[in-house]
Write a structure and sequence with these properties.
alpha/beta; 43% helix; five-stranded parallel beta sheet
């Protein structure tokens, strides 16, 4: 069974790898023998997870990258391919919310901050689409690969 689903020596790109969920996935993939390209906008958190992956015996490299910067994502994708020759897996974990895009019980939808709503929508929608376009092109050209989109448990109930 392990051989059928083995990810050993597969190259996995994980966005939001500096966060709790993304970092946990990065650690698991590294422990299973995948080569992990960890992406996060926060260098300090990225450095911590990459060091953890390497000290656990995993092969990992970190890239400070903004999932909303498509040109930078394409460049980062090229650097990953240059290092490991391909990309097999993309896990989109990066996402988030802002206080102005959520509402307290004593507020109505008309109290929402439109600019915060736009930022949250951009991050959670385009922050998945842009990495998929940048990394997915490599997988499409070779005819194989997997894209996994992770959502917060908050998706099951309305925050607003």
């Amino acid at each position: 069974m392990e051989t059928i689903f083995s990810i050993k020596d597969k190259v996995a790109v994980i966005t939001g790898a500096g966060g709790v969920l993304g970092g946990s996935l990065a650690k698991h993939f590294a422990l299973q023998g995948a080569k992990v390209a960890a992406l996060d906008i926060r260098k300090e958190q990225l450095d911590v997870i990459v060091e953890l992956l390497r000290s656990s015996g995993g092969e990992a490299v970190g890239f400070v990258s903004d999932v909303l910067d498509y040109e930078k994502l394409k460049k980062t994708t090229g650097e990953i391919v240059e290092k490991w020759g391909t990309i097999d897996i993309l896990i989109n974990v990066a996402g988030g919310n802002l206080p102005g895009a959520t509402l307290r019980e004593d507020q109505s939808v008309f109290d929402m901050e439109i600019e915060d709503w736009k930022k949250v929508t951009d991050l959670n929608l385009n922050g998945t689409v842009y990495p998929t376009l940048a990394v997915g092109k490599i997988m499409a050209e070779k005819g194989s690969g997997s894209v996994i989109n992770i959502s917060s448990m908050a998706a099951y109930s309305a925050i607003t």
